[in-house]
Amino acid sequence: MAAKKQRSPVGDAARAVDERFGTAGFLRRNIRKAFPDHWSFLLGEIALYCFVVLLLTGTFLTLFFKPGESETVYDGSYAPLHGVRVSEAYASTLRISFDVRGGLLVRQIRHWAAILFIAAICVHLMRIFFTGAFRKPREVNWLIGVTLFALALAEGFAGYSLPDDLLSGTGLRIAQGIMLSIPIIGTYVSFFVFGGVFPGEDFIPRLFTLHILLIPGLLLALIGAHLMIVWHQKHTHWPSTKRTETNVGGNPTYPKFALQTTAFLMFALAVLTSLATFAQINPIWLSGPYQPAAVSTGSQPDWYVGFLEGALRIMPRLSTEVAGHTISWNVLLPAVVLPAAFLTLIALYPFFERWVIGDSRPHHVCDRPRNAPTRTALGVAAIAWYGNLWAAGGNDVLSATFGIPLEATTWIFRVGFFAAPIVAFVLTRRLCLSAQRRDATEAEEGIESGIVKRLPSGEFVEIHDRTDPEQALVRDAEHPAELVERLPRHVIPLPTPRRLTAQVRSRLNRTYTKYRAEVPAPDGRVEVDTTASPDR
């Protein structure tokens, strides 16, 4: 008689779950799913792990923070502020920092995690943009990523403003001025947000609810949707002899990827904890509580709103009276119109490129940035434009540090607002084309080996090695001749909307695709035969 098989509690539990939810079949189908092992694909994981840290630290801090504007007399452990009338929000933040065990460490971990969370989203979006990973069928995930970036900016600013210290209060005053600059409805928006006259007693509780409930809920939902779409559509990957548009290469989910991502999570936690331990950030006790009549010298916001600060500083004074209403263009344009237009253009770019090029095919292989010079140049131009505004946000600090008149720094950044992206675009495009020509030369002549050989005729030649097939595949620029549109030639060039659109689209198409004619196509390259070459 066969021995009865022993049953364990873990096995019984797994069997019970499988009988009800079919988990075994799901695991069998997905446990071998491949994930790319290139380092650039880890940027999104940094953002994910920072978000996990934000959720955990936020839960801890919520237990001790009091979101109130009511005044109280501070009598905590920080002696320099004894007897000072402060808000409940500021007093509870000081209590977390000095009286709650581990409170200051958790506060600083959270602040660093917020900064790195937005930075990781930024760099992750740039990786997707420069490699063309936003193309069909991943446009929806691109839109989700841009929305996550906008929500992360709002969440970071909300958390930064909650302590009600002098620096964050000044930022809120600027935010109220931005609301008031909106024509017609500005005063209503400010009244609704602050619950009356600034600062009011309702704003901090409202902001706290927004910060711990609404925006995190939206972030959690969008991150979940993003991960599910990535899981369904699979990752993009770099071109290879084994990786094409129809397959996916990389490490299996279990055990290699699971161990790798767990170790990466631990490493991210270690970095954030080290930063929080050794690098002080946002010491609110030094600036003191918010007072409308006080201001701190050389104060700077967190980096992700620095571009908004810079845009406000370099905008000239400009206002208009319309039907008895004053439109403050010096606030409305840089603080409302400009960021809204910037985020909208970023979100719509995949659809713009598809319309220009006319390529509606699905893509799963990443582009090498140099092989798409126009797109790469546009991305670098946007970075230069953003960097100019970000640096302008510290024009007073730069003026004092380098001894440059403040007016001069303002005009430098005003000129840079227009000149920096143009110069960056031209230089980047030419560098990409130069790099393509170098790749084409290596494909035709081979790679210089540094070995010189003397022929029987007495001539000295250098031996060239054949390009590695994997490297050659990555270096090859695409030559989609079928995507180059002909320039429309009308018998009667009337400026009708349809003809104008056709002219604009055809010229943009050639800007994106015709440059590839400058680099020899793979079919037209001379193959290097190492066995028959005179170099050998």
UniProtKB/TrEMBL annotation:
The UniProt keyword set, sorted, is: Cell membrane, Electron transport, Heme, Iron, Membrane, Metal-binding, Respiratory chain, Translocase, Transmembrane, Transmembrane helix, Transport
- Keyword set includes Electron transport: yes
Q: Where are the transmembrane segments?
A: 39-65, 109-130, 142-162, 174-198, 210-231, 257-279, 327-352, 411-428
**Coarse class of the protein's main subcellular location:** membrane
Question: Per the UniProt record, which EC number(s) apply here?
Answer: 7.1.1.8
- What is the membrane topology listed in the Swiss-Prot or TrEMBL record? Multi-pass membrane protein
> For this chain's UniProt record, which GO biological process terms are given?
respiratory electron transport chain
Swiss-Prot/TrEMBL cofactor(s): heme
Q: Which reaction does it catalyse?
A: a quinol + 2 Fe(III)-[cytochrome c](out) = a quinone + 2 Fe(II)-[cytochrome c](out) + 2 H(+)(out)
> What is the enzyme's class at the highest EC level?
translocase
Cytochrome b/b6 N-terminal region profile domain location: 13-239
**Molecular function terms from GO:** metal ion binding; oxidoreductase activity; quinol-cytochrome-c reductase activity
Pfam families named in the record: Cytochrom_B_N_2 (PF13631)
Q: Name one GO cellular component term.
A: plasma membrane
Its subcellular locations are: Cell membrane
Superkingdom of source:
Bacteria
Stated name of the protein: Cytochrome bc1 complex cytochrome b subunit
